[in-house]
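Structure (tokenized):
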């Protein structure tokens, strides 16, 4: 491709609303343009990258035996009403509208309902199972706060796949196959990533894993082991029970603690570490009006864990101060588990404590020397807290460390959540109708493009891995309009590289200074650059630079094409 015939729409200035590197660079390099909040157009250079990412995904999905389909973006409300999600999908992320006949529709944020409708109509016998359908298609989620460019857009491209099975064992086999497939996809893109234990959210199912690309700009916090491959979203990481304290119990003492309404204030007043205190949080119960959650003073409540405990209402709702005073007789800062008169759920770490400090259940007073069993009892001991760096890894190997991550993919075992609700059955070997089991496997295609940039960029621009770079080589002639030798050599190298199957961009733009061409090449992130100039040609060489390298070198004109063919082949095969 010749630059004079191609849209190169680079910008010098960084957009004011672009915060993270991928958003800034995609706009500046002319890959995307904003149309509306969270909605972007893809320009030619960006589309080349996007299509290469899609190609890798399609290669691996086809190799796994999955079959490609294409489903509509617009979906009728009836399907979502069947599954029970029409009124509950993520508080407004579902963009709904009515057609001219006043029928309800939505723009699909995902396609579980549509594919289940296809399956119940097309799959009749267990002999047709297992089967895995996938598509690469546009999704729309009406995000409250679209941000970070492609990271959290409203309109985006996803590869979503859905498998159907007669047995849970068959479902698990495909789940593991998709796990391996996703690993290969991300490895082919040279990404540093971690598969992590995750929450299934609105999609549903009991078994799920996310694939997180490690990057400081990531929205998710990942807890991982220093000594094993254990990794989990912080919200899902288990905090294992510590050893029980062996302190000898001391007497309980009530202490006046005026104006001490926080753990920090109480610890400072009593000249104790926060680890010697417990805090008691009052939430709405599932059947009881109030439930107490007790944690060690320095620990933070994990909302997701708390919501999954029987007896706690979901979504988790904290009781306001007025109701606490009316029903417990004190302010929130003075609550403790001793004789509180409501169900008490204790975090594992708090349950291991002895001689701790807690609220006395009357304003401005706390108790010291409190011990479980003797002074207070629990309805249940559970894992309630967020893990901390330095905690033992749940698999018993090493300790927990934190990294930021970008969620780019997730796989789910949905079980019969959708197939049962929508009566998707096949006949088994005995002619009996059986509800199918279902899996779901998603990759954020456009988000992957951004995630690659977050890992591969510098202060000059993007550093694309060769396999997904918009072009593999850029040829820059210097003053070709003044030198026939430069123009002829640049054209020859361009033709030879193209003939060898190398994707090459010849920057033959008139009126653009060499420095601007170099800056564009670095911003766009083309992996290999050849500069053709009179001075080099007088010595039979061209200047070669690798985008991720430290400098340039002179290579013989007659050797450069062969060297690049070998280098690029090696990069693509790695």
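Design, position by position:
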């Amino acid at each position: 491709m010749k630059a004079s015939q191609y849209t190169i729409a680079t910008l010098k200035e960084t957009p004011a609303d672009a915060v993270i590197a991928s958003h800034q660079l995609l706009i500046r390099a002319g890959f995307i343009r904003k149309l509306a909040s969270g909605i972007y157009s893809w320009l030619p250079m960006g589309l080349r990258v996007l299509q290469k990412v899609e190609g890798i995904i399609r290669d691996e999905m086809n190799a796994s035996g999955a079959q490609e389909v294409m489903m509509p973006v617009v979906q009728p409300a009836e399907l979502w009403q069947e599954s029970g999600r029409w009124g509950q999908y993520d508080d407004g992320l579902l963009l709904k509208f009515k057609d001219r006949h006043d029928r309800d529709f939505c723009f699909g944020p995902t396609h579980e309902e549509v594919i289940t409708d296809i399956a119940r109509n097309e799959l009749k016998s267990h002999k047709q199972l297992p089967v895995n359908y996938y598509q690469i298609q546009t999704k729309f989620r009406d995000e409250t706060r679209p941000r970070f460019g492609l990271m959290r857009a409203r309109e985006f491209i996803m590869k979503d796949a859905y498998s159907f099975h007669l047995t849970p064992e068959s479902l698990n086999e495909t789940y593991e196959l998709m796990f391996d497939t996703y690993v290969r996809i991300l490895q082919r893109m040279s990404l540093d990533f971690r598969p992590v234990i995750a929450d299934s959210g609105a999609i549903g199912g009991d078994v799920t894993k996310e694939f997180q690309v490690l990057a400081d700009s990531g929205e998710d916090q990942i807890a991982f082991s220093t000594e094993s491959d254990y990794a989990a979203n912080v919200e899902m990481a288990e905090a294992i029970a510590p050893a029980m304290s062996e302190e000898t119990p001391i007497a309980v003492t009530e202490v006046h603690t005026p104006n001490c309404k926080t753990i920090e204030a109480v610890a400072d007043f009593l000249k104790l570490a926060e680890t010697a205190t417990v805090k008691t949080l009052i939430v709405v119960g599932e059947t009881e009006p109030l439930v107490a959650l007790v944690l060690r003073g320095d620990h933070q409540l994990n909302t997701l864990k708390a919501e999954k405990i029987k007896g706690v209402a979901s979504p988790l709702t904290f009781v306001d101060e007025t109701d606490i005073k009316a029903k417990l007789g004190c302010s929130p800062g003075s609550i403790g588990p001793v004789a509180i008169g409501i169900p008490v759920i204790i975090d594992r770490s708090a349950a291991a404590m002895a001689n701790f400090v807690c609220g006395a259940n009357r304003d401005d007073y706390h108790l010291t020397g409190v011990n479980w069993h003797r002074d207070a009892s629990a309805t249940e001991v559970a894992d309630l807290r967020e893990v901390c760096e330095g905690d033992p890894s749940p698999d018993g190997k090493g300790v927990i460390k934190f990294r930021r991550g970008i969620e780019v993919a997730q796989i789910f075992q949905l079980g019969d959540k959708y197939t049962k609700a929508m009566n998707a059955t096949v006949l088994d070997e005995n002619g009996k109708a059986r509800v199918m089991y279902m899996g779901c496997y998603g990759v954020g295609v456009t988000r992957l493009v951004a995630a690659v940039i977050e890992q591969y960029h510098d202060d000059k621009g993007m550093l694309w891995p060769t396999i997904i770079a918009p072009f593999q080589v850029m040829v820059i002639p210097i003053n070709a309009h003044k030198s026939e030798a430069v123009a002829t050599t640049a054209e020859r190298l361009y033709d030879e590289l193209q003939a060898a199957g190398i994707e090459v961009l010849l920057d033959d733009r008139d009126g653009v200074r060499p420095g601007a061409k170099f800056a564009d090449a670095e911003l766009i992130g083309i992996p290999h650059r050849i500069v053709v100039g009179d001075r080099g040609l007088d010595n039979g060489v061209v200047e070669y630079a690798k985008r991720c390298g430290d400098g340039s070198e002179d290579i013989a004109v007659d050797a450069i094409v062969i060297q690049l063919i070998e280098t690029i082949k090696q990069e693509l095969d790695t």
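Reviewer-requested clarification: The domain at 253-382 is CATH 3.90.960.10 (YbaK protein). The chain has three domains: 3-207+408-454, 253-382, 471-573.
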